[in-house]
Amino acid sequence: MTAKDFRPRVLVTKIGLDGHDRGSRIVAAACRDAGMEVVYTPPWQSIPAVVKLALEEDVDVIGISSLATDHLIVPKLMAALREAGLDRVRVVVGGIVPDNEQPQLFQSGVRQIFHPGTTLDEITTQISTYASEARLAAAETGV
Amino acid sequence: MNKSLSSSIEQDAVELTPYLAWEQEYRESIGEDRPVENVSGIPIKPLYGPQDWQRYGHDNPLSYPGQSDYTRGIYATMHRGRTWTQRQLIGLGTPADYNARLRSLMDDGATAVSLIPCNSVFRGYDMDTVDAELLGTCGVVLNNVDHMERSLEGVDVGKISCALNDPSPFTLLAFLLVAAERRGTDWRSITGTSNQSDYISHFVANHMFYRLSLPGARRVLLDHIAYCKQYVPRWNPMSVVGQHMQQAGATPAEAMAFTLSTAIQNAEDCIARGMQPDDFLPRFTFFFDISLNFFEEIAKFRAGRRIWSRITKERLGAKDPRSRRFKFHGQTSGVDLTRQQPLNNISRVTVQAMAGIFGGLQSLHTDAYDEALACPSEFGARIAVATQNILREESHLTDVIDPLGGSFYVEALTDQMEEKILSIMKIVDEAGGMYKAVESGLVQRMLGASAQRFQNRVDSGEQVVVGVNAYRVDEDASAHTIVERPDPASMQAHLDGFAAWKRERSAVEVEKALDHLTRTAEDPSGNLFGAIVDGARANLTHGEICERLRRDLGFGQPLTIV
Predict the structure, then answer these.
(1) Which UniProt keywords apply (chain A) (predicted)?
(2) CB-CB under 8 Å, A73 with B131
(3) Between A26, A72, A98, which is nearest B133 by CB?
(4) SS3 string of B427-491?
C-alpha cells in the first residue's frame, strides 16, 4: 500500500452521560474533509459498544469527545480495548480535561488530549499521524 | 479665463453635504476598508445615521417600555424598578453538598434557587445504575423526594423562586411539589420555572436532556403545562430555549428564529388541545445564550421582543398584555470562554452580561471564568456573582431604561435582525413548523453549517480569540485551578442511603404507582404529569419514572447529522 492511497479510519464518539456534541460533530466533519474514513456515533455509547464498533470497522484511531467529566471513564475504555486485542488502536481525547486529571489518561494509554482552542488542522494532522502509526503496528504484529 | 472661473465656481456650488464630506474623508483615510459582517450575516457599516433608521422622524418611532411592541422592554419600569434576578446555576455532589453551596451563594447575593442535577439525572438514570466516577461531577445527585427535601433545607420554596433544570418528564418539579406538601407549603405560593422544558431544543441541540421519543416528550410537556395551570398557577412550566441551539452553533439570528418557531409550535399545540392562549402564554418564558457579539445580541433581544408581541396577538390570538411579554433568562456563552489565560474570561463574561442587561433580560446567569477548564469551582462561581453585583450596583447601568434605544446603529441593527429572524422563521413555517423541521433534520443541518463557519473563522484568524489565535503567552498550566470532585466517601454514603431507602419502601406501593403511570400513558385524556407527581408521592425514583415512560412512550434517540 502506498502512502497515497492510505486513508486513515477514525471513530469519533462519546462515552458516558454527556451529550454536548458540537465538538465531536465538527471534528468528524473535519476528518472527513481531510480525506479520512469516519465512523461517527451519537453520544452516550457504552464502552463495550465502542470496542465492538472499533473491531467491526477496523479503525486506526478512536477520538473520544468529553465536555462534562466523561473523561474519567476513558481508562476503563483503554482496558477494554486491550482486552479485545486492540492494542494497536490509538486513542485521543478532545474537550474539557482539567490539568490535574490528565496524567491518569496518559497513563492509561491515551495518546493526546486536544484542549479547547486547538485548530481543526492540528487535530486532523495528529489523527493522521496516529493512524499511520496504528497501521504500522498492525503490519508489524500481523494483527 | 471666464470659462475656467465659471467651472471653479461650479465646483464650489456642489459643496458636499456634511455626510458626503465625512464619507469622502473616511474613504480617503481608511485605506483598504475590510468588509465587516456580524455572525448572523448582516453587513455592518462604519457609521449609522438617520437615513439608516427607517422609522426615524416618524411620530412614534419607538414604543415606550411596557407598551406594545415592547421593543424597549416588557415593563414600564424595567431595571430602574426591579433589576434582574440573579440566578446562578449550581449543582454538585450530594444533596447536602448542594444545600451548603446554595446557602453560601444566597449569602453572597443570589436571589433565587437554581438547581442543576447530575448528568445521570439528565439522562434519566438513578445513581445506582451508572459509573460511579461520573456521579455528582456536574450537578447534584437527586433521585427522590427525600433528596429534594435535603437539597432545599432551610429554603422556603413558598417565598423564593426556584429554577429547576428539569427536562421532560419533570420529575424534579414532582419531587419539589411533594416536598412542599410534606412541609405544608401551599402549591399556589410556589414560583419558579421548569428550566429547559422545551424538548425540541434538546432533540436538536442538547442531547443530554433528551430522554423520550419526540411524540412522547410532546405529550408530557402539554400535560405538564395543563397541570401547572390548574394546581401550581404561579409556576412557569414552559421555558423555550434558544441557548442550546446557539451553543451548538446557531447564529444569534438563527437561535432567536428557532426559539420563536418553537414557542409557536408549543402554543399551537396547547391551542389544539383546547387551551385558551391567555391561559398559558403569560407563563411562557424564554432562555437565551448571550455571546460576545455585543450589539448583535442587544439587537437580537430587542427584535425578538418585538416579533413575539406581534405573533402572540396576530397569530395566536392573545388579548392579555401579559401573554405578549417576552420574558427571558440569559446565560453568558460558555463557547466564547477560553482555556488559555482563563482569567480573561472574567472580562468576556462582563461584556456578555452587559449585552444581556442592555437587551432587557429578566434574569441572568453569569458563567464562572473556569468553565472552559472544568465544571466551575466555588471560587469561580463567587466571582461570577460578584460580576453581577458590580454591574447592577456599582456601574449605573440600570439608571436608564433601554439606554441604547434611539442609537442609529442599534435601531438599524434591530430592524435588520428582525428581518433576518423573520426570514429564517419563514423557512421553518414552510417546512411545516418546528416539530416537522427538527424531525426532518432541517434545523440540525443549518446549525451544523453555522458551527463549521464559526470554527473556520476562528481557525483562519478572521475572528480573533485572545490567547487562542492571537496574543498567546506561555502559560504555566499548573496555575490552572485544580478541579473539585465530590468526596468519594460522602458519595458512597449517599449511594448506601439510597439503597437502604429503596429496601425500606413499600414494594406494593411502587408497583401500583408504576401501573398508574402506564395506565395514564395509555389514556390520551389522562394527565401524565399528574401521574408522575403521584409516583413521586408513592416513593418512585427518578430513574423508575423515566424507565417506565421510556418503555411506554418510546425512547428518544436524537437525530444527529454530521
Answers:
(1) Cobalamin, Cobalt, Isomerase, Metal-binding
(2) yes
(3) A72
(4) HHHHCCCHHHHHHCCHHHHHHHHHHHHHHHHHHCCCCCCECCCECCCCCCHHHCCCCCCCCHHHH
